[in-house]
Every structure is written in structure tokens, then in C-alpha cells.
Amino acid sequence: MDALFYLTHLSIILLIGLVCTLLSSRLKISSIFLLLIAGLLLSMIRYRGEQLISFPLPFLTSLAVLTLVIIVFDGSSRLSIKEFDKLSLSALRLTLIFLVLNVLFLPFAVHLLFSGVSILLSVVFAIAVSGTSPDAVLDILKDRSSHIINLLKIESILNTPITVLLPFIVLDFAHDLSLMDGSSSALDSVFSNIVPFLNQLIAGIGAGVLVGVIVFKIIRKISSDQFFPLVILTSALLTYVLAENLGGSGVLGVAVQGILFGSASSSENSFFRDFSHLFSTLLEILVFVLLGIVISFNFSLMFFLKSVALFALYLLLRLVSVQFAFGSSHSVFEKFFLVLNVPKGIALAVVTFALSTDSLVAGSEVLNLIVAFMLYSIFISILVSRYSSFFLNRREGQHQSVKPQKH
What we know:
CATH class: Mainly Alpha
CATH architecture: Up-down Bundle
Oligomer: single chain
Number of strands: 2
Low-confidence stretches: 396-407
Strand order of the largest sheet: 1-2
Structural class: mainly alpha
Helix content: over 70%
């Protein structure tokens, strides 16, 4: 009976997701935005005092992680190492500056506007929303190519592992503080987390390179193209599992493997992308609709006003970050394009699922704020992307060294 119950719910979600995807294609907007809205609306439907549609949390988290692995690999495989080298330094500089400014200023604003949220949870929120997810960037800007857009794509790949890892390191720190007996200091807890963080980076990169090399050797011995998608999908999941079991970042490992795979210009790249696009679309439908269902969004006029004010500060910090990172190397219009394109996606959805199971975060206003930021950021990115030519065509001739990729 339970199996039929959950299958019925899945069928309803997929049907609703299909309608949202077709509608987004017709309206030429991001499907993520409509899927999340649909999930939030479904969460309001009650039957006998309970949500009409619900699933066990372990199933939801596993589904979100699987989607993250596929989409991060697909996104990172679209970039060659040569192109990555040209823009990675600029993207990394922007990522770090934006992250630091968010951590320095956003927590105090969150604590001031939402007094029930502690400083540590505010830091978790500031880190989590500092990233731009590859799936959202690629979805919104998929038909456009330029120096600035490639920079945004690389930034999203670079900041994803950082913004997925750091929130949980801060939570571990918060748990350590709550368990302290007074014999150790907060500084001891900070230093105790440095080595695990470095281990996450090293193990993640190592797993990506190791599995990537093995996969290349396997692919060369496969004569039929029909097995390429299966090999790549399996290897991406193995990379994630291996990195996580070694105490590393599975997301970083998958991104590294994807970059290595994308740098090997071959026919199987496009063959896999056709498969991964269909598969990732299916998983995106489930994840974003279910995210809206799981997070009981407490919407009110006061929350809306406060969250919009917080998002305005967030964009101001983004503007300062872009100015610090690039100075006068880009036009004012290009800078505003960088400022306004900060869409959230599957990476933040996975983090939100995981945070909702933590005793310090469950039921907190932080979850509502994250969902609100996802909606605001995607909505603004959709509007800006519609007028990308207005922002980018004014100095585009200066950036012709980066050629658009054909997919």
C-alpha cells in the first residue's frame, strides 16, 4: 500500500513538473522558478490536517544529491581546461570577495531583522546564499555566450563546492560550542576544523582525478556509443561516493572529473549531454517541487518586506564585490549584469534539505529565507537575461578572445 501511495504522489509531481517545464519553455523563463512555486503551492494543500503529498526525508536527500551529481558533472564538462584557465582566476577572486563580504555583513543584518536567528545560523545562511548554482546559470543563460557569461558559468562551478561545504563546517563548529564543557575555547574548535576542511578539498580533487583517469581508459576500449552515458553516470556517482567516504567533497570531485572529461574533445561528450539533459530534467522536476513541499514556507507581508530588504543588501554587497574584483576592466553595464545574475539552484536545494534535518536549523527562519532568496535571485536573473544584449553588446568586441562553445 505504501509503494502505491508514494508512486501516486510521484506521478502527480511529474505531471505538474511536466506542465511547468512546458510552460517555462513557452514563456522562455527558468523552469526552476515555476517548479519551486508549484512545490510551495502544493505544500499549502492539506488533507485531514496533513500535507497532501509527502515523502520520507532520506529519500528526498538522496534524490537531491543524485541530481546535484548529474548537473554539476554536466555543467563542468561543458568547460575545457584551456577556457577554465583564462577565466578561473577572475571568477575565484569574485567568489572569495563576495563570500567574505557576505559573512562579514549579512549575519548582523539577518540577526537584526529576524531576532530569533542566532549569529551562527546567520553565518550559515550567508555562506549558503553566496553561491550561484551551475544548473540555474546554465538554464537561464543556455542560449547565450560571451566573455561575461562564461565568467558567470565558471564562477558557479567554483563557488558550488565552497558554499556546499562551509555551511556544514560552521554547523559542526556550532555543535562543538554547544557541547563544550568550558575546558576548551572557541579558538580550539576553529583550529580543529581547518584540517578536516583541507582534507575535504584534497580528497575531493584526488577522487575526481583518479576516477576520471580510469574512466578515460574504459571509454577507449568501448566500441559502442550506447554504453557511454551509463559509464559516465556510474563514474560520476562513484566519484561522489569515493570522495565522501574518504572525508572529501563529493561535489568538488565530480566537478574536477567533469572538467577533465570536457577537456577531452570527443564525440562521446555530446552523446552524454543529450542523455544527461533528459535525466537531469527529470530529477530537477522532482527536487524543486519537493523542496517547495518540504519547506513549510511561512509567508507574510512583514517577512516579505524584511526579506526583500535583506536581498537588497545582498545585491549591494555583490556590487561592491564586483567592483573590488574587476575595477575598471569591465563596463558599468557588464558589472551590473554580473551583480544581478546570482541565481540559486540544485546546490542550494541540497544544502536546504540537509539543513532541515539538523537540530539547530530545523524550524528556523533561515530555511524560509533561503527559499525566498532562491525565488528572488532566479526571478531577477530571468529578467536580466532577457535584456542581456543591452548589458553585454556595448563592449563585446574587447572580449572576442573567448569563443562561444557550440553544444
